[in-house]
Amino acid sequence: MAYQLYRNTTLGNSLQESLDELIQSQQITPQLALQVLLQFDKAINSALAQRVRNRVNFRGSLNTYRFCDNVWTFVLNDVEFREVTELIKVDKVKIVACDGKMDEKIANQPYLLAVAPEELAPLTAQCSN
Amino acid sequence: MANSANTNTVPKLYRSVIEDVINDVRDIFLDDGVDEQVLMELKTLWENKLMQSRAVDGFHSEEQQLLLQVQQQHQPQQQQHHHHHHHQQAQPQQTVPQQAQTQQVLIPASQQAAAPQVIVPDSKLIQHMNASNMSAAATAATLALPAGVTPVQQILTNSGQLLQVVRAANGAQYIFQPQQSVVLQQQVIPQMQPGGVQAPVIQQVLAPLPGGISPQTGVIIQPQQILFTGNKTQVIPTTVATPTPAQAQITATGQQQPQAQPAQQQAPLVLQVDGTGDTSSEEDEDEEEDYDDDEEEDKEKDGAEDGQVEEEPLNSEDDVSDEEGQELFDTENVVVCQYDKIHRSKNKWKFHLKDGIMNLNGRDYIFSKAIGDAEW
């Protein structure tokens, strides 16, 4: 499953609002809307990973930092964002960052199960050498 | 050009994401038995909101033309709607500032002077009215007509009613229905203020419900305020002038007005009794507190000033909020991304970020890598 991180962006919020409207008018079910959002997550994650190729630098002062559930949240003050083409200054910015090393393959790695011994035999019987 | 790099890539990327998502969910929609029409509607809503947010510049105005050509081949039926839609959407950027006051403005500016009759600019409205009995989707749909449009337009709604839009000299616009017979199920309640209304007045038109269901009442209009007392309403932002021919026709439909006005006046009357004018003793206040709570809900809904005046003195003491972070657009600048490495040395922090979407000063930016420094 891709990060749901990007749902709180202009693109993601407008999609959610549109879906909410359709739900309100009962043209789609909430379940369907959820499916759409999941699809959006995949699409935006892959688009960012593959179709964007630019760098940004920034400098500022750190007001707060938080690391919880592998998510960093920073609040910076008096920040300058510098791209090759332009300079953007803001008084306050919040940065929310998920772990970049986690990708779907890692996330979906199999994990250990606890199996009772009597149940183990039939399972191993299916395994080939 | 300085800004070209970012302003070019962001709309393109958004457009490609939208396309990908829409195409990917098409199957899911069909599996669920949902019509393709709804999918198109989703796409249109999505794009409209993106345009309204003004976070992205020059969004898909050109791509839309290309898509129209592609869609013409696939869906001839859709062509008309999208054709109108395209023309209409060509103008939204101009009209957005004018409509800044209204929320959730869909700006189907119909500029087809050649055709005296214009299908309701928002094709979605037609479908909404048909499919969902003027459901809450209409709450987000507003008809806005730019000032530069031809003076008189006739808009054909789905049920064949003619909404006539007249633009008066002072730039006021309003919508009324010349056909009285069909009005029975509709309430058009303009706020008539002789002497010229300077403030925009918002009208609510409750479209006819096919099932003959009685429309929701309780349309209350005050200048510069949107008042919803029904669940499903359609808001049409207009300004009201008082040209005489229109007055005649509106008063013809004014039969509906007395119905609304008592409802309109009832609430304020009751509110005022219990509102700020209430200087009774505490005993009375206790008894009326429950009453006030209900009233306050209505007050907040109606946006009546009485309730707010009462609350402000109470809350003003609690207001300790600092006002830092107030940017031009009053947006909280957010960066949503992934981190490669976060490093700290004493109080010096280094950030290595990637794949991020930034919203700074109201505009959207994207990066594949970002490196930053900060002192804590």
What is the gyration radius of chain A calculated from CA atoms?
22 Å
What would you call the shape of chain A? extended
Strand order of the largest sheet of chain A: 1-2-3
- The rounded distance between the terminal residues' Cα atoms of chain B is 36 Å
Order of helices and strands of chain B: HHHHHEHEEEEEHHHHEEE
Family (chain A): Belongs to the TFIIA subunit 2 family.
Function (chain A): TFIIA is a component of the transcription machinery of RNA polymerase II and plays an important role in transcriptional activation. TFIIA in a complex with TBP mediates transcriptional activity.
Main location (chain A): nucleus
Organism (chain A): Equus asinus (Donkey)
Key attributes of the depicted protein:
heterodimer, A: alpha+beta, 3-stranded antiparallel β-sheet, 4 helices, 31% strand, B: 376 residues, alpha+beta, 4-stranded mixed β-sheet, flat
In short:
The complex is a heterodimer of chains A (129) and B (376). With 129 residues, chain A is an alpha+beta fold. Chain A is built from 4 helices and 3 strands.
Q: What does this protein structure show overall?
A:
Chain A: Its main location: nucleus. Chain A: One of its GO terms (cellular component) is transcription factor TFIIA complex. Chain A: It is found in: Nucleus. The complex is a heterodimer of chains A (about 130) and B (about 375). Chain A is of the alpha+beta class. Chain A has helices spanning about 10-25, 30-50, 105, 115-125; strands at about 55-70, 70-85, 85-100. In chain A, helix 1 (about 10-25) packs antiparallel against helix 2 (about 30-50). The longest helix of chain A has 22 residues, at about 30-50. In chain A, about 30% of the residues are buried. With about 375 residues, chain B is of the alpha+beta class. In chain B, the strands form three sheets. In chain B, strands 1-2-3-4 form a four-stranded mixed sheet, covered by helices on one side. In chain B, strands 7-8-9 form a three-stranded antiparallel sheet. In chain B, about 35% of the residues are buried. Chain B is flat and about 60 Å long. Chains A and B meet through helix 1, helix 2, strand 1, strand 2 and strand 3 of A and helix 1, helix 2, helix 6, strand 7 and strand 8 of B. Strand 1 of chain A pairs parallel with strand 9 of chain B, so a sheet runs across the interface.
